[in-house]
Amino acid sequence: MSPPIPLAADADVAQLTQWLTEWSLLYPFSGDRTIQPVLWPAAGNFGAQELQIIFDWKLGNRWKAVAAAQVNTFDAANPGRIELMTGNALTAPNDAAALAALRGLPQVRGAQAVAVGSAILMCLDPNRWTVIDVNANDALVCLRNTIGGQRNNTTNPLYELAVPLWGFTPGANSNGNHPALAVDWPDYMAVCRTIARMTMLSLRTVDRALMQARRWR
After folding, report:
1. What mean pLDDT is predicted for residues 207-214?
2. What is the phi/psi pair of residue 165, to 5°?
């Protein structure tokens, strides 16, 4: 399947929905089978085994062994801590607090650890959270630059999205990419939820579309 045609600056909700749907269909769905068993945990938290499954999915083969060793070491030194921290994240009152609850877990340290932290949150509740990373950020920046002009006219069909989207301003690195940082996490989720609500697509579908739409740059 070829990439969808570029979205027009004067696109409406139906066109945005179609554009996102077409991009999402380019996502490698087979990769998501790995995390199916851990989505919406009945216990309301994750243990070391579930965390390793999520890391395998998010980090890939390059960091698989390193992450597994880190999880085992952390769990051995802090019995029950993974369950407590992930449970606190699930019951957190807002997005920033949910991410903060995971701080200190393996792979969830430092400014850029939000990508892994958001993957954990997405698996805890895919209806509440989605994944932030450089690919999704790049796609949203392109979307902002395309339809952002609609923020100045309340009669435009994507005005409701253009306003929060214009406020999403992740910093660019020397390559022109926009790495995922914790400071951008609340705004990112606000934009993604607005997209999901307007298009009636799931957050997971929006995430898959944004990951693939990075090629739109």
Report:
1. 92
2. -65, -40
